[in-house]
Amino acid sequence: MTDALGMLLAGNVGQRGNAGGHVWALAQWALGLRRAGVQTSVAASIAGDLRRTGAFSARELTEMQAAARESDAVMNVMGFLSKDEHSATGPWIFLDIDPGYPQMWHTLGLADMLTEHDRFVTIGQNIGQKDCSIPDCGVEWVTTPPPVALEDWTPGGHGDVYTTVATWRNPYGTVTFDGVTYGSRVHEFRKFMELPRLVGAEFELALDIDSAEVDDLRALQDNGWRLVDPRGVAGSPRAYRDYIHQSRAEFCVAQNMYVATRSGWLSDRSICYLAAGKPVLAQDTGFSARYPVGEGLIAFSTLEQAAAGVLEIERDYERHSRAARAFAEEHFEAGKVLSCLLERLEIKLGSPTR
User: What is the mean pLDDT of residues 117-129?
Assistant: First the structure.
């Protein structure tokens, strides 16, 4: 047998230290790389949370450059790690998990995350398509769905409440590109404020929202949305997973950036819900052109479609629950997704890590 390829997965979870979902997002990539035959180490700023997933060992921030020198390749989440003169000569792969932002920042001259990299990967699966307004920045983007480690999301139990874990406004602010201003989740969610009053279902948001958002908080409460603190119910990887397992389904509204650009983005969080056998009702960002939606995963664009989606899920919940898990198995299984990605990147693999 040949030695497995050594790859460093570098990402920043330090600014989201209470967000168990973001920790899991990195964990899924590491687990998928391992299943694809890659010896994977992880450099991140809160190593303790990463270790608690049980997926891999993490390296402290001060060891990142040394790890990059020792690796055959670096998968660099949102360009978190910078090269130095001693960095390994193997491929540096830019991994875009917030499609639209790095490409527009680069084109506008606001931030350059791309220059040091050799290959470019994005979960914005429509980048490069005619109906997607995200610039390609003159590079070839290899698109991929986010991966999920199915064994960590065993289906079981049916909760009573539609939930999600989300941030009201992202830390990036708005971006104006080609005369269009792209915004956060708040700019989309307001379109669906009335949903709980239209359907006979309970909705709970583990929502990171500032107390100064008085008008939106009042509107959410008046329309029947129950709010909980995400740091309390999903602040650690274990709590996040438990929260999803205790839910009935997910109701997912995307950031305006993802919707308005027709990016094809689908949340790594939604994929965890699917893997846990929880139906997902997700705002369409253009992903419906890529997947056979309608069972397990239901797309909506309008308030009326969202209400109809709830009714459809409740009409035969067990069928949609089974379909959700099957959907995750077919389209998002971590080893399958990452093996396919590495083949497309033409990165040679060694023997699988067991």
Answer: 96
